Amino acid sequence: MLHTVTLNPALDKTATVGGFAIDAVNRITELREDAGGKGINVSKVCAKLGTASLAHMLLAGQTGKKIEQAIQAMGIEARAFEVAGETRTNLKIVDPRNHTNTDVNEPGPQVSATELAAFAKHLTDGVSQGDVVVLAGSLPKGASEDTYALLVQSLRSLGAKVFLDADGEPLRRALKARPYLIKPNDHELAGLVGHELKNVGEIVDAAKELVGSGIERVVVSMGGEGALFVTAARVLFAHAPKVKVGSTVGAGDSVVAALAHAEGLGMPLEEAARLAVATGSANVMCSGTQAAELEAVQGLIDQVTIEELA
Length: 310
Description:
The chain has helices at residues 38-49, 61-73, 113-124, 147-157, 168-174, 186-193, 200-212, 251-265, 269-284, 294-301; strands spanning 2-6, 10-16, 30-36, 53-59, 77-82, 88-95, 100-104, 132-136, 161-165, 181-182, 217-221, 226-230, 235-239, 305-308. By secondary structure, it is an alpha/beta fold. Helix 1 (38-49) crosses helix 8 (251-265). It is globular, with a radius of gyration of 18 Å.
């Protein structure tokens, strides 16, 4: 069973504004709304790939209800845990003229330690040995920076494989609990090791250092270049195909989704890497945080080239 966890979900509004300018009146030409948050995005993409998931979320207020309804309408099983306040709304401004994507994200509701402890029990009560659990996204206000570390520890004790997609101090602390897989981008990886990573070789060395500390797989997303897949035995560079960009929002989530899907099917590393980068590329072609159709992913798989680095 695949579980996704979104502690700070959002209603994503994606606005298309040609020639977006600071300190000026900007007019929206297109607007779409999507249930968002990194874990929710993973569930949406997995559904397109053919893997069912349970989407566990902290939701608040009318916006939270709207997100839950939207997820259920997509055929995804939602496990909502209600908290006080109002779930955030995030604005994504896509400027096709200047080729920019600007995010304006709300902080979300304040969550108490008691609510987080209750959510953790709600989550772990439904997890069994061998399950894959994706923990993804920012933490809500009020959450300790140890939140992911504690969840990883609890989930690993149940025999689950934990995929973690977070950044900053919550990620750094969670590394000590040894999640099965992490997916930083190259800038987040540099933050983890505490120095600039100037080339692919230095990125590989930093990822190997994390693998040596007990992380089974480190996947480093590198935008339009593709992604590095590092284990104790192999290092693969999956080069992404060139595609027309609709929105980069959720591209990394798509990579995580494909990896979770591949894990459930027992795919070899090279096959999983090819699928992950094709899925990320297909989702970049979409607007907003909608998930690409399976046919679009399949059409890109053969365009992903794999380079063995070690």
